[in-house]
Write a structure and sequence with these properties.
Shape: globular
CATH class: Mainly Alpha
Distance between the termini: 17 Å
Number of strands: 2
Strand order of the largest sheet: 1-2
Number of domains: 1
CATH topology: Farnesyl Diphosphate Synthase
Number of helices: 16
Structural class: mainly alpha
CATH architecture: Orthogonal Bundle
């Protein structure tokens, strides 16, 4: 992969790759949701962007389908047909959506993808119920596969880490900006691996498992996805401060206005420079986003985050190089990983 710079551009083939995988998975995902209680199924379909409140269909992409693609490519990288990875793609997409429904409630977020979140549209209780139903359906989907017991073990391990990551993320918000109880970059890195990386690794690993891959290959793809999750989260943090609103869909300095403890902020606060001390004082008193962004940059937070993303990308490459992968699928997998990390900064 190319060295990550302050200006990055996604590979042109990645959107086509994502579209191919979505088209392969969508019928099975619709079939699974169709087995749910009609009201709960409507909330699930709404969360996927397939319908409006009340069930009227809409034409919408429903998101990029990153985890779906990782599962399909995991199977193909193992030398199997992409269809072998479809049950894994369905299960992980159901779990991802379940986690988003509950995250939105915990965070109090009123909108997602420019629409009311499920809890705002249907109520908190119904949204919790829909999330629980999606989780149950994911377990049912994997249990029906030939590798059911092992597949469920992989999924349960990822879910345990996802819960740990979410718990840490919630607790981080209440910790001070400075002092011995402050959040340190290594703690944030672990949180990102659990909250974001675990499910990405699970998607690729489950696809490989259902494609008949050896345990070493399954484990390597899980490691690659976990490192990808850290890199993805760090780049997301950079975009949350310095990203172009026209690209990100978020206001400039949005994460600073929300006082989020992101990787650039945490690394800047730990730097032994005057800008770090000024930043700490600003954050303690109520940050002015524009001034805080300048101080984070001066204290090295932006460069440290870019360096961290580079390290995680190298770790992804090392994990993929450890095992034999089908050449064409491995190339597409690398293209997708490149696309996920190298968004415009």
């Amino acid at each position: 992969m190319r060295a990550l710079s302050s200006t990055v551009h996604a590979p042109a083939g990645a959107p086509r790759l994502l579209a191919r995988c979505r088209a392969l998975v969508r019928p099975a995902l619709e079939e699974a949701v169709g087995r749910m209680h009609p009201w709960v199924g409507e909330m699930a379909a709404y969360s996927f962007g397939w319908c409006e409140v009340g069930g009227a269909p809409v034409v919408a992409s429903g998101g990029k389908g990153v985890r779906q693609a990782l599962a399909v490519l995991g199977a193909e990288a193992a030398g199997a047909s992409g269809r072998a990875g479809v049950p894994a793609a369905v299960a992980v997409e159901l779990v991802h959506t379940f986690s988003l429904l509950h995250d939105d409630i915990m965070d109090g977020d009123p909108a997602r993808r420019r629409r009311p979140t499920v809890w705002k549209a249907y109520g908190t209780g119904p949204a919790v119920l829909a999330g629980d139903a999606l989780f149950a359906l994911a377990v049912e989907t994997l249990a029906a596969t030939a590798a059911g017991p092992e597949a469920l073990r992989v999924l349960s391990a990822a879910l345990g880490d996802l819960v740990r990551g979410q718990a840490d993320d919630l607790l981080f918000a209440a910790r001070p900006w400075t002092g011995p109880e402050r959040v340190r970059p290594d703690q944030y890195r672990t949180m990102a691996e659990h909250k974001t990386g675990a499910l990405l690794g699970c998607a690729a690993a489950l696809g490989a498992l259902l494609g008949g891959a050896a345990p070493t290959t399954v484990d390597a793809l899980d490691r690659a996805g976990r490192h990808l999750g850290i890199a993805f989260q760090v780049v997301d943090d950079l975009l949350g401060i310095w990203g172009d609103p026209a690209v990100t869909g978020k206001p400039v300095h949005g994460d600073l206005r929300e006082r989020k403890k992101t990787f650039p902020v945490l690394t800047a606060l730990g730097a032994p420079v005057p800008a770090a001390r000024r930043l700490a004082a600003l954050l303690e008193s109520g940050a002015e986003p524009e001034e805080a962004a300048v101080l984070i940059d001066e204290a090295g937070g932006r460069s440290a985050a870019l360096a961290e993303a580079r390290r995680q990308i190298l770790a992804v490459e090392a994990a993929l190089a450890d095992v034999p992968l089908e050449a064409g699928a491995a190339g597409e997998l690398r293209s997708l990983l490149d696309f996920l990390v190298r968004r415009d900064l």
